[in-house]
Amino acid sequence: MLSLVAHLARGIHVGWVMAREGALAFVDAAELPPHLRLVLRLGRKLERPGLGPGRLPAALTRLGPSYVKFGQFLATRPDIVGMAAARDLERLQDRVPPFPQAVAVATLEGTLGKPLSELFTSFSEPIAAASIAQVHKAHLREPDGTERVVAVKIMRPGVRERFARDIQAMRFMARVVEALRPEAERLRPREVVETLARSVAMEMDLRLEAAALSELAENIKDDTEFRVPQPVWELTGRDVLASEWIDGIRLNDREAIVAAGHDAAALGRTVIQSFLRHAIRDGFFHADMHPGNLFVDPAGRLVAVDFGIMGRLGLKERRFLAEILLGFILRDYRRVAEVHFEAGYVPSHHSVDDFAQAIRAIGEPIHQRRADEISMAKVLTLLFDVTALFDMSTRTELVMLQKTMVVVEGVARSLDPRLDMWTTAEPVVRSWLARNLGPIGRADQARRAVLTLADVVADVPDLAQRAKRVLVRLDEEGLREVSRVERRIRIETRRMVWSTLAWWVIAGSLVAIALR
């Protein structure tokens, strides 16, 4: 009961701050039932005067680090908050004052079990601070005497407890949203909160971020245009992550990139193609590829940092994505519609032809414009509208990928304003489809099927023995259960007989007394 009151109080506080900062302006009253429209009108009356753009970021920043992280996550979910709110949330900066150097050093020494002087020859003040961790620049001496520069990420103290408390409140508010507006279930607010909870839980253990960094490095070891820093495992723990220091130019500084002699247009193509390779080829991609996390090194290679938010796609989702992109490129809207149905994303009671018609309404306007004028954000807005009409359930991993693609496109276009995203994407998409759906892919699928069948055949004797043991156990338990039931019936029958006789005796005695 106390926790319910606490969650309710936090929910009221969140609502109050959102109303005061004007964040309710993004809610479409036309989509609300009458009783919620009244609540919205009352909430809008609480807005502070003179509010400008950036209302959602201001509100979430006031609410604290957990809500800043939630806002960043919702920026990847325009299907829930709408494109206008998603664009506003993209302004949200996860920048907070750094915590004291002494606290950082204590966390470092407690995690790694050694004094600072034995770990590094120098350790800077924080150079960047966010809601979960902050980063320091450090130097260490290798066994051969050479000096190495590393980036050291240190977890903010008390952050786990604060996030755990706020996530519980968010779970409560998600249940309230579903109760007040049942049609919101299609958007799965509770699943959204759980996805955020899992994402934050991964970010809260820096060993897992190091593992993500290592996995991505392994996937791209043969790629010549993209690289990631190497983690320093012996200096990494739950609250500390050390990795190679990156000297480079941020991708949002185009003038510096050009001045350094790099080809900005080629870098734009590399951004798009690298992201698609990671997503479609590997099924594992950096889901926070904003310009602050991307550099170009002196050799002209693209370098990504900060691997707290990663995305995964299974083979089914990768095939879906590749065929969707190729379908739009080739204007094969029927195939795009069929892919949705084959994947089970659109309920079968809908018409493929009707869905293809709706997809055509998205695709044709694209091909009527110059390639450099095509906005992926516009395509996504229309796609979300169409999927809602056809009862398509939200696919969290696909929406995150699509939104990341919009961010990646924005980064690439900042380098080359005339970039043709579709022409740039086509080689990567065609290569993957040819490899996985062509003769080589079919042969590989057949090989995997044969190996799976061989494993099953090899396991048949063991499976048969286990099945026999289970059946015998079930049979024995069934017989015992039957015996218990029969015994219970006999006991109940005797009880009923004796009860009936007792009532007759009592009734006879009462009659005898009455006659006497």
Description:
- The chain is of the alpha+beta class.
- The protein has 3 domains: 2-94 and 162-199, no CATH class; 246-437, no CATH class; 457-516.
- The chain has 20 helices and 11 strands.
- The chain has helices spanning 2-20, 34-44, 55-63, 65-74, 78-81, 83-89, 101-112, 116-119, 159-180, 189-203, 206-219, 254-259, 264-282, 315-330, 333-342, 352-367, 376-389, 396-415, 421-437, 439-515; strands at residues 122-123, 128-129, 133-141, 147-155, 226-227, 240-244, 249-250, 284-286, 294-296, 302-304, 310-312.
- Strands 1, 2, 3, 4 and 6 form a 5-stranded antiparallel β-sheet that branches. A 4-stranded mixed β-sheet has the order 5-10-9-7.
- A hairpin with a 3-residue loop joins strand 2 and strand 3 (133-141).
- Helix 3 (55-63) runs antiparallel to helix 4 (65-74), helix 13 runs parallel beside helix 19 (421-437) and helix 16 packs antiparallel against helix 17.
- GO terms for molecular function: ATP binding; protein kinase activity.
- This is Protein kinase domain-containing protein.
Structural class: alpha+beta
Assembly state: single chain
Q: Mean of residue pLDDT?
A: 79
Basic shape: globular
* Proportion of residues in helical segments: 55-70%
Helix count? 20
Give the terminus-to-terminus CA distance: 63 Å
Residue stretches low in confidence (pLDDT < 50, at least 5 long) are none
Q: Largest sheet at a glance?
A: 5 strands, antiparallel
Number of domains: 3
Strand content: 5-15%
The rounded Rg comes to: 31 Å
- Find the count of extended strands (DSSP E, 2+ residues): 11
Domain Protein kinase: 121-463
Protein name: Protein kinase domain-containing protein
Pathway: Cofactor biosynthesis; ubiquinone biosynthesis [regulation]
Family: Belongs to the protein kinase superfamily. ADCK protein kinase family.
